[in-house]
Amino acid sequence: MLKRTYALLLIPSYPIFLLCMLFQGMAISISAPFLAVYFTEELGVTAGTFGIFTAVTLLSGVALSMFIAKRSDAGLNRRRLMVICMMFNAVAFAGYIFIHDFYVLLAYMTIFTAAGAPAMPQLFASAREAVSASSSPDHALANSALRSMFSLGFISGPLVGAALLSRFGFQGIFSATTLIFLINALLVFSFVRPSAAKQPQQRVQQLAGLQRNARVMIPFLILTLLYTGHWANSLNISLFIVNTLGGTTQNVASVASICALMEIPFMLVLGLLSAKYDSKVLLGWGMVMGGIYYALVIGVGELWQLIAGQVLLAFFVAVISAIGISYIQDLLPDHPGYASTLYTNATTIGRLAGSLAGGAAAQWLGYRHSYLLCVVLVVCSLGLLLWPRRSPDEKITTPLAS
Fold first, then answer.
1. How much is the pLDDT for 400?
2. Which residue, 107, 108, 116, 99, is CA-closest to 38?
3. How does it sit in the membrane (predicted)?
């Protein structure tokens, strides 16, 4: 493992991508846990109104990211694109510092969050191109390492955010988030090598019709369903611990921390296993572990059982996070920007759908039996994964005839 990891670190620009992913995760998580408090206490809106704000800003970037992805694979300068999008992310979070009217902030964030949304998938796409240019076969390990750095930043961010909030208030966490995005833009501008020139017309012709290609859209649907179940769990698990198992908020924090810490080594191990096993096989095993975890939650009666089950959940999350993007990229090796954006859009739509469906399921079925929804989503995803398709492992370089 050390030899393969060292080889990745020798790839030009790849260490910078790792550092940018760490900062990206930290920037998002510094403020994310405290936004609901900020909106309800500082701006005086209801929790439902904040939910609308979250939904609108999440969805605003989906269509634009896909539009940009096609252009980036068709010859748009990817480094320049990442710098611009990271700057837009910085501008977006700076809005929290200066704008204190909800409706003005909603319009402002919708525009600039959408403009900054392509930054993340373009980071993955640029890393994919760098690894491919080096002739390294470790694409999945490279993605696993990137995703691990993002997770590490996401774990450490709330701790930094809590310290900033106690000392500087909300202005402190928003200023720090803005600064980190600016640092990321500077890192990419200063140290990332420009990608090789492409042939725009050929790329545009190849990308035409991919959105109607079942062999592309079925994997997209699989990941969307899996992320829907994952976010439904994220929404309900804390309330399940407190209201059903009689736990405390400290128990909630412990369960979340255990899962998050185990995700990182699982991602790295999965990256190593990817050299031996196809990403589709690993994705299938992840679904099985996720389904077992959701079924376990339905039957648990003690907190320790749920804590033990975090091993299953951590493996599932590691698979959909690290292997999920490789699964899409391997199908579209000539279109890393489009593939990476397809993956991130699946996570975005899944996050929104999971929040809505998870809340509805908890209201109608109760916290425990809301996990029936998660089980059904995993079963449907596994069925789609195993559904026989013509040449399922063939890489897609040109669209199928419609």
1. 36
2. 99
3. Multi-pass membrane protein
